[in-house]
Amino acid sequence: MRRTAITSILAVVAFTSIFGLAYPLAMTGISQVAFPGKAGGSKLTVNGKLVGSSLIGQEFKGRGYFHPRPSQTGYSANVTYFSNSGPNSVEEREAVRENLAAYVVLNKPYDKSLTKADVPVDAITMSGSGVDPEISEANAKIQAHRIAAVRHLSLSKVEDLIAAHTDGRFLGVFGEPGVNILQLNLALDEEAPLSANRGFK
């Protein structure tokens, strides 16, 4: 009995040391050396100031910026979740209708041909996390008309910036291409600054 207890204690200490301490430290060290940016959270800085992470969506205000998907959490990375409402939820249907109306009101003045039927689903619904950093190419191309007008850029120039900040399908086959909003808005500020006050927090 005593021998079994000692063996058990030693096994717990050994496995805890190996898998709870040594292995995590080794993986952290390897990742910091091999992929320092990604291991550090894919942070983005401007003039030495942290402005966010390319992995986490955030709110952008104003007509001169691309806007992300709606967020249940107010784009808080500390409490990521979604509404959890099903397709038969009256509250969910009303929220989607409100998002759709707001999207059309914001963008139609810059693209007269825009109709509610043209609005992609990601523009009016939330992602599972509430902080999705990407929007669809269709969503970005609709917003491009507004951005081009407000920033006094050609539509083709804005579309080129969208293309430059679009990630393709995973392994070329999984998922859909996505446009990284933070990186795209930073590129816009470099190309055609609006003012000293950026639209992101």
Description:
The chain is mainly alpha-helical. It folds into two domains: 1-40; 42-191, no CATH class. It contains six helices and five strands, in the order ααββαβααββα. The strands form two sheets. The chain has a three-stranded antiparallel β-sheet. Strand 1 (43-46) and strand 2 (49-53) form a beta hairpin. Helix 4 crosses helix 5. 22% of the residues are buried. The mean pLDDT is 83.
How do the strands and helices of this protein lay out in sequence?
Layout: H1 2-34, H2 36-39, E1 43-46, E2 49-53, H3 90-107, E3 134-135, H4 137-151, H5 155-164, E4 166-167, E5 178-180, H6 181-191
Antiparallel strand pairs: 1-2, 3-5, 4-5
Helix pairs in contact: 4-5
Distance between the termini: 62 Å
- Rounded average pLDDT: 83
Please list the strands of the largest sheet in the order they lie side by side: 3-5-4
Count of discrete structural domains? 2
**What is the general shape?**
elongated
Biggest sheet layout? 3 strands, antiparallel
The helix count comes to: 6
- Bin the helical content: 40-55%
Helices and strands, in order, run as HHEEHEHHEEH
Low-confidence spans = none
Mind telling me the C-alpha Rg?
22 Å
Number of strands: 5
What class would the helix/strand composition place it in? mainly alpha
Query: How big a fraction of the residues is strand?
Result: 5-15%
